Every structure is written in C-alpha cells, then in structure tokens.
Task: structure prediction
Amino acid sequence: MGGRMWNTRETQRLQRLNKAAQLLGSDLTGKVLPHHRTVDLLNAVLQPFDRVCLEGNNQKQADFLAKALVQVDPAQVNNLHMLQSVLALPQHLDVFEQGIAKRLDFSFSGPQSARLAKLVSSGQLEVGAIHTYLELFGRYFIDLIPNVSLIAAHSADAQGNLYTGPNTEDTPAIVEATAFSGGIVIAQVNELVDTLPRIDVPADWVSFVVKAPKHHFIEPLFTRDPAQISEIQVLMAMMAIKGIYAPYQVQSLNHGIGFDTAAIELLLPTYGEELGLKGQICQHWALNPHPALIPAIEAGWVKSIHSFGSELGMENYIRARSDIFFTGPDGSMRSNRAFCQAAGHYACDLFIGSTLQIDLDGNSSTATLGRIAGFGGAPNMGSDARGRRHCSPAWLKAGEQARNGLGGARGTPRGQKLVVQMVETFREHMQPAFVETLDAWQLAEQAKMELPPIMIYGEDVTHILTEEGIANLLLCRTDEEREQAIRGVAGYTPVGLARDHRMVENLRDRGVIQRPSDLGIDPRQATRNLLAARSMRDLVRASDGLYSPPQRFRNW
Result:
C-alpha cells in the first residue's frame, strides 16, 4: 500500500515538459515558442496511444496545430486516439492515413463525411463512438481524459493567459479536462499582446503558446442568404409558426442550421406579427448569432440569446445589442458550447431541425451509405430531458397530449419537450427523406458498430413537418397510427405512396395530421414577399449597418 505512486499523471506531465524544454532550448521563452518549432514540440510531448483532443468544432479550428500534427514522426508518434467535436479539415483525417492516429471519438464530420466512411471501411480508422457534444465533453472527464490538447484562442499575453474572443466554443471543456488531469495544453493564437481584453483561460492551465503564421480558420456556418429561401420553405415556416409555435406558446427554443429555420426567423416580424404572436412565442433562444434573426431582434421579438459559438460579421451587431447577447465588459460575446448544449437540452421547450432520413418509427439519421456525417448537438437538443422539473405551458401541453388516455404509471403527469423534424419530402438529387429502413442499419454492419447510428430516436420526436403538413406524433395511440401519420406527410416518396388513405383521413379528422388548409393557411400566400429580409443587403439594412457579411455573401 505504501509503495504505490499516486501522482503518476503529474510525474508524466513534468517529464513531457522537461523533454520539450531541453529540445526547444532558447527558442522557448516562458511558455511561448516560435511557430517553426511546433512540430518539434509535438514530437517531444506526444507518445504512442495518447488521447489527443484537437480543437475543431463547428466554426473555430486549431488549423495550424492540425497541420503540424500531420508532420510528426510516425516512428515516434503513432496509434493516437483522437478526440474531436468536428472533423472539418483534410488534416483531421490525414493523421489516420499516415499511421499517426488510429482511433477516433467524434460528434460531427460534415465536410469530411465521405472520406471518413472510406477510411472506416478500409480499416485505417476505428470509430469509438459517434457522440452528441455533451456526451463527448462528459467523457473528457470520465474515461476519455486527454493526455494532450491542441486548442485555438484569439490572443495570449507573455505569461500565457488566453483570450478566446467571441468564439470560445469548446475551449473551456477541453482545457479543464486536460489541465486538471496531468495533461499538456498547447494553444495556437492569432496574436501576442501586452494586455488582454479579458482572461478566458488562466496561464497556469496552459503549457505552451504558439503564435500561428495566420489567424485560425472560422467558418460562417450559420449564415443563410435569404435570397435562397424557397416558397416551399416559406410555406413550411408558416405551418411551424401557426401550427406548432402558437398553440404550444413556445417561448424558449433552439433552431438547427438551414434555410427552413431561417425562413421561420424571417417570418416572425411579418407573419408572426400578423397573427398577433409577439410576446407570446420565441423570446429566449439557445442559438448562434443567426443573421436571419436580426429583423426579429430589431422588431422586439427576442429577449435573450445564449450561443454555442459566434458568427463572422456579427461582431459589431452583438457589441451594440448587449441586452440580447452574453457579452463581457470588453463588448465581445462569450460563447460556450458545453453550457449552451446544456441550456438547449434542459432549458428549451422546443428543438426544430432537419435530417437526411426518417423511418416509419420516426427515427432519423444523418449517417447514410457512403457518408458518415455524425450528429453534432442534435441528440442533445432533439431529446426529451427526463431530468427536467421546471414547468412551462409548452412543456406541460406536450406532456398532457402524450399521456392523454394512458392509464397506470404511464399516466403519471409530466411534461415533454417538443422535438420537431422539419424536412422536405425529397432531398437533393431527388433522394427521398422518408425511408422504410434507415441506412444506419447497414452502416452499423459495415463499421461493426454495436448500435445503428441513429441521430434522434423516434420516441423523442413529437412532430414531423413537411410541405404536405404536420404530423403530431404526440396524439398517436398505437404504432399503426404513428406509422400512418408519418406516411401521411411523406408526400410522393415510396413511403408516402404506401399510406392507408382512409386511416390518414381519420387521423386528419382527429387533428393528428394537419394540412395547410386545416391551419387556415393558403399556400398561394406563401411567397417570398412575407420574408422580413429577402437578401443579404436587407439584413445589413435591418441591422442599421452593424452587420458586415463575409465577402462570399456579398453581391453588391
């Protein structure tokens, strides 16, 4: 008992630090080293089979460190277990092709989804699990504790204190899990300064700082050009507002990424105003600073927005609207992906997002054959938080509808979160969104997964919204009703064409299925003229010139 060492993590950390200090010599000034020595640093501190957290999330990328990692010596550094929110850059998968890394736990891989699928099928990459964000962050503190973390920040001072700016994102979760478990934290920064606007990460949590040759990459992921919103999307947005948001009095919510939800945001100050819903719906948001929400903010619809990350071009607008966004004394926003995921899971009444495939049980997935896109935060947002105990009208009404007529223990009163899948019946290249069987089942076989990669389980889905109407699954009392409700809004897909017409009409009579006409919506009125902004330039005008869109979104 007396012979056991109880500080092996700290001992190993000191050994790695000493090895790096000896190798870098006079090039290391305190914690700061020149960027041309970064590969040497990684060769010194990394060991085979290390768990390495490389910061790459929806927007902010530790891209310089990712490029350096690809250049390490595979004879010294190999079989790494990579922990990443998002696979976005080619280097994120280059490390597997070069034998530097072998195993991966991640959440989302949109830009690299096809390549990831090939590496998995060839055996060059082992997937631990496809996580939702909170799940992955949680495991950083349990059984996937990082040995080394590579992060990105906006600036650092001479001591190594970090300022993350508006795009804090994953950084706090990554740093805390690593720094307090004997790990090494290496930060790439855009600039070295004498004084930081605020300290987001204290220096004693940081091992090394590298000023990258250019600023880290930021993706304007949540910007949608209103000019690309279709009239079908306007119609679906009208149904969402009148058929779901209004009757449930949805006050706190999260929107997924897409033109469908951008259309809802742009209809609030017009169609929502026409319905007299201002102050009754959509006041509190867990949401990135969507430019499409500017008109609703300006019209007084929005009271607060807490964000997962930021959005390029919104910096001055956020600074000028500090009553709405979470900003510091320096004026810049403080985002936090972990906290915002928790808010979206527990504090929001509704999640509305899209998917690639939905089956007859209401299960949905973005993992399809040849494309493993992952899930991001959708399983957090798109699930009923069983631990929730505070009440709201939307939560209580959904719970009552789900349990009405059910006896025994299942009839015990409790609320339920609204989880809406909003999708056109056909996707790009005329691929049906509704299928008898998800590709996820075949993927599970190919990749030897223990469970099919389902993004949102059907038991959590309360509504499915298509151009054909709304299916309220809360009102279904049997599996057969549920199946026919889904078929009833699946349009001209094979799934939709196989509907039982009599049963679908019965469900419509009961209000389980609602067509636009049932909601008093004339599809002929669903035109782009209803949008509060019909172009990027309109969004700039609505912001009083404070919003500055990235160049690729400018056509003037």
In short: DSSP finds 19 helices and 21 strands in the chain.
